[in-house]
Design goal:
7 helices; elongated; alpha/beta; five-stranded mixed beta sheet
């Protein structure tokens, strides 16, 4: 593991202790009585160092157990990261390299910028040494500004690319999967409404009408008098009336009324998802289709946070190094080695 704090490798000579311990184990040499032994001077019995195959396995297990303990302590106590660049893969490469050189961070370690980088950095700041510097290089509108300006124990420099520096490009279309369960007489009206949605907004959204839900389904339109299948799930449902569920819930969902953009909605949360019930769909004219689309975008699409500008965050008083959560696989490996060492020790004694 290359992420361990280097000073902990000074504890590696501790691995010589099991070797020394095993070499101290001696076995008495088997003695045979001879008739002529009475003419020889009396000599004390001697011991001889004997290595068995199971002793070598036990020695290896004990050495691995000590090595795992050293790694555990290194991962649990000490910070190990140095100067680091958190690089957004969506940022322009030429501009990003210019910012890294301007900050004199060419030799710093680089890692992918996580989502919600400021909150993530506040949770993982203990991984960096006290003299480490951090540079965040992000594309436009990719770093949201929190309500309160964060304060870090390290020097953190955020550099966000200006939208004007990016060459205009045609955005890739986004596909939204919608399940349409309706009667043949009303299917054409629903299809016409989503055809209008394809050119609404930015014009890059594409709505794919499916027959059954899948992992990518965002919306289910249930426009049938029969109950919906019990195993169908989606974040949002549209129902032409109050949609029955199968099986019926023990406690009926509480519906709240809402009037927006001239559309009356009954909204209820169920185990199947959030259900919007209205008599306004499918749209019968262009104005109703526009009102339905605007209502959907206003209520169902989360608002984007205010983008953070380029800035250097002030540093506060460095706190004591927090205990880093150990790796789960390392804990299980230590437990397995300990149990194996006990089994081999018991087998050796018998």
């Amino acid at each position: 593991m290359t992420s361990i704090f280097p000073l902990w490798w000074l504890a590696l000579p501790v691995l010589l202790l099991p070797v020394w311990w095993h070499r101290q184990k001696r076995q008495r040499v088997k003695a045979e009585l001879l008739a002529t032994a009475r003419f020889l001077p009396i000599a004390a019995p001697e011991q001889q160092r004997v290595w068995r195959w199971r002793d070598l396995i036990l020695l290896a297990v004990r050495c691995l157990l000590l090595l795992g303990l050293i790694v555990w302590l290194a991962a649990m106590v000490f910070p190990w990261r140095g100067d680091t660049v958190l690089l957004d893969s969506r940022a322009d490469r030429v501009w990003a390299e210019q910012q890294i050189r301007a900050a004199h961070m060419e030799s710093a370690q680089r890692m992918a910028m996580p989502d919600d980088v400021l909150s993530w950095l506040g949770e993982h700041e203990r991984d960096w040494r006290s003299n480490a510097r951090l540079l965040i290089v992000a594309a436009p509108s990719q770093v949201g500004m929190p309500a309160r300006v964060p304060q870090f124990a390290h020097a953190v420099d955020l550099r966000v690319q200006s939208p004007a520096a990016i060459a205009p490009s045609v955005p890739a279309p986004r596909r939204h999967h919608v399940v349409l369960a309706t009667t043949p007489a009303r299917r054409a009206a629903w299809q016409a409404m989503f055809a209008a949605f394809d050119v609404a907004g930015t014009g890059t959204d594409r709505y794919v009408l499916d027959d059954e839900p899948n992992n990518a389904t965002e919306l289910i339109i249930w426009d049938q008098p029969t109950p919906a299948p019990a195993d169908w799930r989606a974040p949002l449902w549209w129902a032409a009336a109050v949609m029955p569920t199968a099986p019926a819930p023990a406690t009926p969902p509480v519906a709240s009324a809402l009037a927006i953009n001239g559309i009356s909605l009954q909204i209820s949360d169920t185990p199947h998802g959030r259900i919007w019930s209205s008599s306004s769909w499918p749209a019968k004219d262009a104005d109703t289709a526009r009102a339905i689309y605007e209502t959907w975008q206003a209520l169902a699409v989360p608002a984007m946070p205010y983008p953070a500008p380029s800035q250097s965050f002030s540093t506060g008083k460095a706190s004591a190094p927090a205990v880093v959560e150990p790796l789960a696989w390392l804990a299980w490996a230590l437990l397995a080695l300990f149990l194996l060492e006990r089994i081999l020790t018991h087998a050796r004694r018998n």
